[in-house]
Amino acid sequence: MATGKAGWAEAETTPPLGLPMGGRGPRFTPGASVLDPLMSFATLLEDGQDNRTLWISVDVVSMDQTATYRLRQDLAGIVNVPLEAIVINCSHTHSGPMCGYEGYSTLRPKPKELQAYESDVHRKILKMAVEAQDQLQPVDIKLYRGESDIGINRRRRQASGDMGMGPNPGGTCNPDLWILEAKAAAGETAIIFNYGCHPVLVYGYAWDGISPDWPGVCRAKLKEELGEDTHAQFIQGLAGNVRPRVVADLEEGKFRKPTPDDPLSAGARLAGHIAGVLSGEGDSVDLDLKAAAGGFLGPKDQGKIPPLSHWQSLNPEGARDPLRSGSAASENELSRELGAYWTDRLESGIPPALSAPIEIGIIQLSYNHKIAWMAGEVLAEWMTHVRGWLNDPDLIVWGYCQDGRGYLPTEEMLHEGGYEVDRANTYSRTGPGPFAEGLNHAVRAEFERLGRGLGWGGVE
Fold first, then answer.
1. CB pairs under 8 A, 24+ apart, for 422-426?
2. How far apart are the first and last CA of the chain?
3. What residues contact residue 132 under an 8 Å CB cut-off, 6+ apart?
4. Which end of the chain has the least Cβ crowding within 10 Å, N or C?
5. Nearest of 222, 142, 215 to residue 179 by alpha carbon
């Protein structure tokens, strides 16, 4: 028996060579080779009352909030889906173009070639959505829940007492593996799967190589397992502090340098876990679609912002080193870019941000099956919080939606410090200070407001 309608489509969105690569702060390493094509995906769902939700997945590190808003406006008009029911998710591959450029702390103008690429991706996504709408057909929908261990927490206390980067098997890492299967009577099948883990393996051995990393391997393996016509769409989860376990050296307490075998191993392992979960019963779902979206202002700690002299020291006399990808000069380039930007901004009289505006939303597939989504690089600890606030222990939470820039730690983590809490804020124009007390309250209040608006019982 059909439980709703679904349509899906995909398109290759590999960039031309020479564009700056993303996932490495405001560095400007040009892409030099295509190891594997980048892809974009669309899935459109419709219930018996003609309510719709549209999910777009893009193989980029991030997208800018203003760009995704314009895209969602176009999509809403073309396929008749409310803005709040459209989610644009970034796979967060660190081996793709530097999309989301507008949010980086740099004085360099956005390359025209990058603007042209993003415009092309915009058009391809619109065409995908139309194709998905044209292919809408009755489907049986099942949801599956399982686990995978391909990720591991990457925040590890160092001997110095500082919080650093290293595998932490005792740290939070959500094992949740969420899968939606839409199967038509003729056998056409879409698999949308969600897991949270950073795609950071390929750039460890191919700094300027273009690749979707392990998510691309997983998608390809699923097609091999389930049929080449299978629509295999990945939605990134709460990966802010999660790295692939395959490169974790637990004895040394560090992540080793990746090799070309590592994304193959991680992607194939996740695909195996997905296939195993799909061999179970699953939970049939009669679609009853609802959606709500909003946002909150995450307060920033003005007392922990370095003075102007600090930024001036990072960029003496405005000098810049030549770009030498993967070298010490690249790291020096990063410091100089930050120094130049924050020196110019502070001297111009534009103060640091008092808060960071962050979008969040919720989607109901049926009353018993719900999704929450959040913008930014959301850390794994938010899963427990959001489930509790919305009174749903089975709730799944997606990250990197609408805008994938900026780490979002929970308030409990602020005293720990570390990259995701402190340093990473300097890369974003909503920095350079870390978040402050009151962050949890701001997120909770908005999620609860959205839940009440949809009539979800148990939300205070």
1. 422/304, 424/377, 425/300, 426/105, 426/338, 426/342
2. 36
3. 7, 8, 9, 42, 43, 44, 54, 79
4. N
5. 142
**Cβ neighbours for 41, distance < 8 A, ≥ 6 positions apart:** 8, 9, 10, 56, 57, 58, 128, 231, 233, 234
- C-alpha 279/C-alpha 416 separation (Å) is 41
Count: domains in the chain: 2
Q: Which two tokens stand for residue 16?
A: 């031309």
Residue whose pair of structure tokens reads 């969105």 in the numeric block: 13
Q: How does pLDDT run across 27-86, given as a tens digit for each residue?
A: 899 999 999 999 999 999 999 999 999 999 999 999 999 999 999 999 999 999 999 999
pLDDT number for residue 108: 94
Q: Is 380 inside any structural domain?
A: no
Cα 241 to Cα 157: distance, rounded to the nearest angstrom: 13
Tracing tokens 């669309």 back to the chain, one arrives at 42
**Residues 329, 208 share a domain:** no
Q: Say if 181 falls within a structural domain.
A: yes
What is the block-wise mean pLDDT of the chain (460 residues), using blocks of 10 residues?
88 98 91 98 98 98 95 98 98 97 95 98 98 98 98 96 96 97 95 98 97 98 96 98 98 97 98 97 96 98 94 73 44 89 95 96 96 98 98 97 95 96 94 96 98 84
What is the extent of the structural domain holding 345?
306-351
Q: How many Cα neighbours within 13 Å face the side chain of 31? A: 28
**Separation CA 145–CA 283 (nearest Å):** 9
Please report whether residue 78 resides in a domain.
yes
User: How far is CA 99 from its chain centroid?
Assistant: 12
**Strand ranges inside 137-218, DSSP E:** 137-147, 151-153, 155-157, 163-165, 176-184, 189-195, 209-210
Peptide bond into 16 cis (omega under 30): no
Tokens of 312: 């001036």
Domain boundary among 360, 380, 403: 403
Residues 228 and 325 in one domain: no
The length of the chain is 460
Structure confidence by residue, pLDDT tens digits, 267-301: 999 999 999 999 999 999 999 999 999 999 999 99
Q: Are residues 24 and 165 in the same domain?
A: yes
Compute the distance between CA of residue 144 and CA of residue 240 in angstroms, rounded to an integer.
24
**What is the distance between the alpha carbons of residues 82 and 26, in angstroms, rounded to a whole number?**
34
Q: Decide if 437 is inside a domain.
A: no
- Smallest CA-to-CA distance from 64 within 9, 22, 113, 10 is with 22
